[in-house]
Amino acid sequence: MEQLTDVELDYVFERSKVTSNKQALGAAGIPESTFYSWPKEKQDGLNEYAQALKRNRLLAAELVLVENAEQAARVITGQLASDSESIAQRAAQDVLDRTAGKPQQKMDVTSGGKSIFDLDEWKRARQERLAEAQEIEGEQDV
């Protein structure tokens, strides 16, 4: 990476934060014509650098989260003793959600026993559409 120019480094840095070349070029202030005038191998190489930088950033962020997970858990569990019932209740809910999992909500998918999709009606409507299409096709042949 030491051999990259400042413009190329700007592109790599911006590309590591976005999902498209165009977004990165705009953020870095590089004209698209400049980027696309570079050899394809160079473009691909810069994008590989950007992906590596993105992975390193994500790994660094994950490490910070892991390092602070115990402290965060202590903060949440410490709130269980809060004088405020709403804070204690929220902390209790967080602890339960993280250890036992959130409760599953039951949903009625039967629509009260009535079918949402009427197959016979769909078949009739399809036949009508086919007949209309054949009529139009027949008129065009004349």
Verbal overview:
The chain is mostly helical and 142 residues long. It has a domain at 6-99. The chain has helices spanning 6-15, 21-28, 32-37, 40-78, 85-99, 119-141. Helix 1 (6-15) crosses helix 4. The mean pLDDT is 87.
Q: What is this structure, in a nutshell?
A:
Helices cover 71% and strands 0% of the residues. It is an all-alpha fold and 142 residues long. The longest helix is centred in the middle third of the chain and has 39 residues, at 40-78.
As residue ranges, the low-confidence spans are none
Residue-averaged pLDDT, rounded?
87
Assembly type of the chains comes to: single chain
Question: Order of helices and strands, N to C?
Answer: HHHHHH
Question: How many E strands?
Answer: 0
The gyration radius over C-alpha positions equals 29 Å
Taken as a percent bin, the fraction of beta residues is under 5%
* Major sheet description: none
Output the keywords.
142 residues; mainly alpha; 6 helices
Helix and strand layout, with pairings?
Blueprint: H1 6-15, H2 21-28, H3 32-37, H4 40-78, H5 85-99, H6 119-141
